[in-house]
Design brief:
The protein has about 260 residues and is mainly alpha-helical. It has one domain. Strands 1-2 form a two-stranded antiparallel ribbon. The longest helix is centred in the middle third of the chain and has 16 residues.
């Protein structure tokens, strides 16, 4: 049971950070530039995927990638236009053109079979299942392997699904699934907000430990489950709401999420 004073702190801080002012300081700003659902989905996955490291570098590199994908990121993927990206082009830190193409070949396969990624995800029947994001990642990896001659790439979606916290996919899912209409977009219906997990990075893990939400030291899948289970005692229908508090505590004004 979370003590009453900690619960009140989490609710207050989550409401403070979950505000329109947060958008311009966070990678969620990038998918919000689009109106077409498939465009929003592609940009959400890519912007979340690049959201690690220095804030200025993250925004610069997402902007540069979106310029290549103009005007429709989903069309750019469906048409295979990404194949012209040089293998050695540095997209962001250790993520290169060859990794981007590996990832987008799998998403191209999906978008040429279904109108949206959500429509594809709905066929997986993940709503209400434990660890739904990891099951989704497993399905994404199957699509990437199918589109790349059976090969995987750990620089795309993690391959170590038994242990990974799946931070970047959980972040993208928060944007796509939560439906309060403030920061997150809430476009997906293949999952419910209750199915979400906190995007666990170094700062969120340290904050959660300081608040007594977990005693585990590793920022891994088990810790993600433990922290989210604690938050579900406050709001079983929307545990990821408290991601705003865990990320925002100690930061004034709110800063964009980075991962060191």
């Amino acid at each position: 049971m979370i003590p009453a004073d900690i619960a009140e702190l989490l609710r207050r801080e989550a409401a403070r950070i979950n505000s329109p002012e947060f958008i311009a300081l966070d990678p969620v700003q990038f998918p919000r530039r689009y109106s077409d659902q498939a465009d929003i989905e592609i940009v959400s996955l890519l912007a979340a995927h690049l959201a690690w490291g220095n804030r200025k570098m993250i925004c610069r590199d997402v902007e540069r990638l979106l310029q290549m994908m103009t005007p429709s990121p989903a069309a750019w993927v469906r048409n295979g236009a990404f194949e012209s990206v040089p293998d050695e082009l540095n997209i962001h830190r250790t993520f290169f053109g060859r990794n981007l193409k590996h990832m987008l070949r799998g998403l191209e396969l999906i978008l040429n079979r279904y109108p949206t990624l959500d429509a594809w995800a709905a066929t997986l029947n993940l709503r209400g299942k434990p660890d739904a994001p990891w099951l989704l990642a497993e399905a994404l990896n199957r699509c990437l392997a199918e589109a790349n001659g059976g090969q995987g790439d750990p620089r795309c979606f993690p391959l170590n699904l038994e242990t990974t916290a799946l931070k970047r996919l959980n972040m993208a899912l928060r944007w796509l699934v939560r439906r309060d209409g403030i920061v997150d977009l809430g476009l997906w219906h293949s999952l419910d907000p209750a199915d979400l997990y906190v995007p666990l990075d170094v700062h969120v893990g340290d904050t959660a430990r300081a608040l007594g939400l977990t005693a585990r030291r590793a920022n891994d899948r088990k810790t993600t489950r433990e922290i989210t289970a604690a938050l579900r005692t406050l709001d079983p229908a929307d545990p990821a709401f408290f991601d705003f508090a865990l990320f925002g505590l100690g930061l004034e004004p709110p800063q964009p999420r980075n991962e060191k």
